[in-house]
Design a protein that fits this description.
It contains 7 helices and 9 strands; from the N terminus they run ααββαββαβαβββαβα. It is an alpha/beta fold and about 190 residues long. It has a 7-stranded mixed sheet, with helices on both faces. It has a two-stranded antiparallel sheet with strand order 1-9.
Length: about 190
């Protein structure tokens, strides 16, 4: 018997769901569990690249490179720097670009990356400036800080029921001229404020 389409998910989603089930068996306070969660978030960065499309990009001239910008340091950014370079998003090869907080605050990340991950330890003042600088620019912002999506971030990561989840701020992505796949929206859940 085949499951109705509302109960099926894309192959990448199945793998990530399995990873969150395995992760759910561990306590969030456990360093090993935290490392697993960081690896899942890094994998989400890779997968999200396939489900977010810059409406301003010329489809006749596909990019040879997909640049994931990283501001700050945390476990997710450390893993992303190790595992993401060289992977493919369509025909584009992923590169990871380290962006200083000062450049991100001033909006200078826009020409340097296609997606911007902001490490959770970034201070509140810097985070507000980074979000303001990118609110209408075609660079989705991602972070795991509570209230990130509500504050104007594009995608917020969070832990729920022992697994990594995410909230998509579709209004912000629309303002940024980023088209988000319906498949990604189906898995979006409200995150903690």
């Amino acid at each position: 018997m085949r499951w109705p389409s509302r109960f099926r998910c894309a192959p990448w989603c199945t793998g990530l769901l399995l990873a969150t089930v395995v992760f759910a068996q561990d306590s969030v306070q456990d360093p090993e569990a935290d490392a697993k969660a960081a690896a899942v978030r890094a994998a989400f960065l890779f997968k999200f690249a396939s489900y977010l499309t810059n409406e301003l990009a010329d489809p006749e001239k596909p990019a040879a490179e997909y640049r994931i910008g990283i501001v700050g340091d945390d476990a997710t950014s450390a893993i992303a720097k190790k595992i993401l370079p060289g992977k493919k998003v369509g025909e584009a090869t992923i590169t990871v670009v380290v962006i200083s907080a000062a450049d991100a605050e001033a909006g200078r990340a826009i020409g340097k990356c296609d997606m911007l991950y902001i490490a959770a330890p970034i201070d509140d003042g810097s985070l507000k400036k980074i979000l303001a600088a990118h609110e209408k620019k075609p660079v989705p912002t991602l972070c795991e800080r509570p209230g990130f999506a509500a504050a104007g971030g594009s995608i917020q990561f969070f832990i729920q029921d022992g697994g990594v989840r995410f909230e998509v701020n579709k209004d912000r992505l629309r303002e940024q001229r980023i088209k988000v796949s319906s498949g990604l929206l189906r898995h979006s859940l409200p995150g903690p404020r």
